[in-house]
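## tool: complex_structure
## caller: assistant
## args:
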Amino acid sequence: MKIRPELQALRSNDAPQRHAQRHLKSQIEAWRVAAPIGLAEAELSQLAGGALLEDLPLLDALFTSGDPSAGQFVGAFMSRLCAGLAEEPLGLVPLRHFTDDALSSLMLARSGFTTLSLQAFDGVGMARHPLPATATFTPCHSWEHVLAGSAKAELIHCRQAYPDRADLEAEPIILRPGMILTRSNSDTALSLGRFDGCMVTVRLQCRRTNGEVAREYRLEDGLLVHQAAGTPRESRLELTAALLGRMGRADAAPLLSAMAQELGDVGLRWQSMRECLVLDSEEGFRTLCTIAQSPADPLFGPAVALRAQLLETHPQLAEVELCPA
Amino acid sequence: MNLPKIDISALPDLNTLTGLFGSLAYPLQAQKSDDTLLILMVFVYDTIKP
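## result:
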């Protein structure tokens, strides 16, 4: 393997790398003050809290067709960043970023699960990958402003969702510079097709945290092929519940009982109840009975079935059912 | 009351399982129009001790 001398030198002395990071960080900090990113983050927070985009001057200007703000905003950022990288080519961009042969993505600002990011799609790189076989619908709302380049794409509308499939409808569109694409990602997915050159967009995405899940359907027949938690929080809580169960933490049973009865992700609620039943069968069975007495609860059916199964296997649980909490 | 000790393996899962955040059957396609990757992303370079 060939290792260039400047990289080899970093093995024994990382001072140049630290200097490069400091330099890039100062460039980004200067841009953050001038942009101003503090205001953008405050508006992102307001958007997550339910504010309308038209009431948020900075963000609204970025996503208004014909408004030069988006170009200026991104242009100022790229000037700083490119100047910094020209001086320190081994520096790492101190912002969340990702790149492969088809997509480069860079997060400009974030507040909670609301993000403002910059995307560059490489048509040549994307042509190396097969066309999408599935469409993913995530619990969020997004605004996308095409700054440069164009691409053929399809909006995949989820007309009706069933437990194991969905009625999908494809609408061909052409993304062009200046275009603003606003969509609810939970019922409209974007599927990029083949295109030449590179397309650059700035994207605002606001993720809902109400327990909705991300669903992935096969385009061919609308079959549900996968679903996943809508936010990392639900996954973290589910892992925590499993860990408490494996640790035998019976003192956590009341907490798990409360989690099982909260509104939100049914997967997380069900796993919390399973762990609660294992840690404390009385507390867990009482929780199960509460859910099995609420026909409006999405877990009503599975809870009724599990209650019947447990009563058959462990008849003594009937005493818990009769005993008021 | 003499209550039973219930084994986790005796308790069924829901018919449709919910995967961890970011898990998808075709993740490379999903990331093109979604911020999942950005939310999952973390920095490691500035926490690694030399």
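## assistant note: The helical segments of chain B are 27-30, 36-40. Residues 44-50 of chain B have pLDDT under 50 and may be disordered. Handing back to user.
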